[in-house]
Write a structure and sequence with these properties.
The structure is a homodimer. Chain A is mainly alpha-helical. Chain A has 17 helices and two strands. Chain A starts with 9 loop residues before the first helix and ends with a helix.
């Protein structure tokens, strides 16, 4: 996603992240708990069928921590414990999400609950959350106690926001009275809070002052909001949802994404059809076109553009190092202008 | 359970714990997340049908933190954040346990998953775990950064042990090759680790040195092992399991408790009947008597006595304050010689 540049190779960062993650997760492997370790290693994409880069996901969050640290003038290696922590939090939430959403596939492979059952999958998610908190304690090896404590506090607050966002998301499934205003608190918690923590933690570990840390936090937060709105666009009008398989459309899944909430608030033809019952696969292209004609696509694009602009302004205000600014802008561009 | 004594009223401690818990949990209550707060307040026994002391459980763990702190010469009020944290960890595990074990009742009331569904219950447990980590950050208000960081680390290690123990417990359900040797790693994680954390945290916050903190940890650990073995005894030969309703017997539930693992390792009449299929309700009294006649009850009683003696020795070695020693011994006695 980012090319080798300015002497920093993205590959080096990714390999260092993977090594740090494996080190943290390895504490679970003991006599009698080998299978528990295998579950986690499977989910992380290291073991089992089709293990490898595809099964690991993009590791966007840990890379964001390291780049924010670089941008704030720090040594990226010192930020590795925080990078591992945010990726573990993300993966804890994925394991539980997959149970909650009854999802059978994750990154093209059977989900943990499908392979090991719901009770073990709930526990595997709990283990990853605990490992995230354990990962961040490794900051103490290079950071001052006050920075380490602050990092703990950021991680805790973030996880709490994540679970509040998840509560809203789950509770929205049974509600029909939602508007775009209900979208932002949910997405702030579910997506943006963790991205905000990534950039804030990176800056904190680099020794940035509270004012700068807050600008990095704002950068991550707006980036997260833009990222989620873009995800919602792709979920309806992206290559695989619109041109490809209708089964991959958020419309077929009944997901209350931003364009859908916008459409519902208009009470037009889209809203009337949505409220009359689940959308069938064969209706998906037509409904996507209808929603587009009612302005939902443009509205969502405007939200992406607005959040992106706020993100880049916050980054600008933080006066990042040139290498950090370049890499962070490249990452933001790659995330927001992706098509699939 | 403990009488007012030496100027310290157990009531005062319990009320202070409840207030601290409510304060921590209240951060969840915001515009739009009132129902999430209600779920947690329901589970904690503060709200909903039959809310009150019965629905709250005994709060043994937080009281243990405060008493250990007193015993180590500290101010119990300074230990309140740690007390709240361990009780929140305990309750996180209960919410997830109830889903994993398909339990419909907890403290006589419908479980969270029965009332709000599995997806929201998984998330409610996640919230409580996050609140536990948030609770412990409040230590920073009175303790030094190094003590606060150490407390974080104890909580993290403990939660990880808890989830490893839960993994073992879940994996044992489908195994028939278990012996009493398999019992201890599981119970060390599921029960003893958290009680060990209670007493260690209490001593740590009181400013005890590492040697003393370790003795308090040992006290809690042995107490936890004794407590669980006693629980297993009551689950088969306690008033409600044996004399009362067979439905409340661990034998009817097929639970692989210590007496059962002992019986299975003998390969006698009990083991043969157990392996031939689930025990019916009408067989429960006869099977309990059979297991007793094979020596499982005596074996388990010996384990309780052994762990209790090790616990009291560790406490003795820690030279506790007289008030702390008295209250901790009373609590241990009340826990271990309970009949129901």
């Amino acid at each position: 996603m980012i090319n080798q540049d300015n002497g920093i190779s993205l590959n080096t960062l990714q390999e260092a992240v993977e090594e740090e993650l494996m080190k943290v997760v390895s504490v679970v492997r003991e006599d009698g708990t080998e299978e528990l370790h295998h579950m986690l290693a499977y989910h992380m994409g290291w073991e089992g069928e089709r293990a490898g880069p595809e099964a690991r996901g993009k590791r966007i969050r840990p890379i964001l921590v390291l780049l924010a640290s670089l941008a704030a003038g720090g040594d990226w290696e010192h930020a590795l414990p925080a990078a591992a922590a945010v990726e573990l939090v993300h993966n804890f939430s994925l394991i539980h999400d997959d149970i909650q959403d009854n999802s059978h596939l994750r990154r093209g492979r059977p989900t943990v609950w499908v392979k090991w059952g719901i009770p073990q999958a709930i526990n595997a998610g709990d283990v990853l959350l605990n490992l995230a908190f354990m990962a961040i304690t490794r900051l103490e090896e290079t950071a001052s106690p006050s920075i380490a404590l602050h990092a703990h506090s950021i991680l805790q607050t973030t996880c709490l926001k994540l679970t509040k966002g998840q509560y809203l998301d789950l509770s929205y499934q049974s509600r029909s009275d939602l508007s775009p205003q209900d979208y932002w608190p949910m997405v702030s918690g579910k997506t943006a809070a963790l991205l905000a923590a990534c950039t804030e933690l990176g800056a904190l570990v680099a020794g940035a002052n509270p004012f700068l840390c807050d600008l990095y936090r704002q950068f991550g937060n707006h980036l997260g909001l833009a990222f989620q709105a873009q995800d919602d666009l792709l979920g309806i009008w992206g290559n695989s949802a619109f041109l490809g398989k209708s089964t991959e459309s958020d419309l077929a899944e009944g997901k209350k994404s931003l364009p859908v909430l916008y459409g519902l608030s208009l009470n037009g033809p889209f809203a009337r059809r949505w409220r009359s019952g689940p959308i069938h696969l064969e209706e998906v292209p037509e409904m996507a076109a209808q929603l587009d004609s009612e302005g939902a696509r443009q509205y969502t694009q405007e939200q992406v553009a607005r959040s992106t602009s706020l993100a880049l302004q916050a980054l600008e205000d933080a006066h990042p190092t040139s290498v950090g600014k370049k890499l962070l802008s490249d990452l933001a561009t790659a995330l927001l202008y992706r098509q699939g």
